[in-house]
Write a structure and sequence with these properties.
This protein is of the alpha+beta class. It has helices at about 15-25, 30-35, 40-50, 55-65, 70-75, and strands spanning about 95, 100, 110-115, 125, 130-140, 140-145, 150-155, 160, 165-170, 175-185, 200.
């Protein structure tokens, strides 16, 4: 059950107004942007006003639609084209149980993240979008659905696939899983024309 809207903690300060400004800057109505993201207009409105916190899959989808990156949505401003990204914890980067940290520089077509996937979260959310994705399991066990096939991955296993293949990921163990995640984005506002709506697995 979702927590009530009122009084929800502002775990990602600044994301809500950026989501609203990006949508308006792309000339999209709330209804059009929500449809392309596979969300209801009411849910997107709550994200834009800070009454709901977006999960990582939502941030990825909205970044694609608005022609930007997750790091820019989060307001992270690492030095442009800096080749070195220092390690650190996941503090301050948690949404809907997902924990993540930027692991690559900004302004590049390939985006790299460290991701902590909680058990049982978003496991039935299927995504279809342009690009490629690569993930490498660092810790725990991950279940990756690619089309109609399920794959159980352990530490050291990886997956590399075309993002137009319907896909979903979930942690198998109650302790969750940690992975390295690399994806490509179409850095153009026209990218949403190629997006399919989010589907829910049976």
């Amino acid at each position: 059950m979702n927590p009530p809207d009122e009084g929800a903690p502002d775990e990602l300060p600044g994301v809500a107004p950026r989501l609203r400004d990006l949508r308006r800057g792309r000339g999209l109505t709330l209804e059009a942007a929500a449809r392309r993201a596979g969300l209801s207009p009411a849910h997107l409105s709550r994200l834009e006003t800070g009454r709901r916190q977006p999960s990582l899959p939502m941030l990825l989808g909205l970044a694609r639609i608005y022609g930007t990156t997750v790091s820019e949505l989060l307001g992270e401003q690492p030095p442009e084209r800096d080749a070195i990204v220092r390690g650190g914890g996941f503090e301050g980067a948690e949404a809907d149980g997902w924990m993540y940290r930027q692991a690559g520089g900004s302004g590049r077509a390939m985006q790299a993240l460290r991701v902590r996937v909680p058990y049982g979260a978003q496991g039935d959310l299927v995504r279809v979008h342009p690009g490629e994705e690569w993930l490498y399991v660092v810790e725990g066990r991950l279940r990756v659905g690619l089309g109609d096939t399920l794959h159980d991955l352990g530490p050291g296993d990886s997956a590399h696939f075309d993002s137009l293949t319907p896909h979903r990921i979930a942690a198998v163990d109650r302790g969750g899983a940690e992975l390295l995640f690399v994806h490509t984005l179409l850095q153009s506002p026209a990218a949403e024309l190629c997006l399919g709506n989010a589907l829910h697995a049976r």
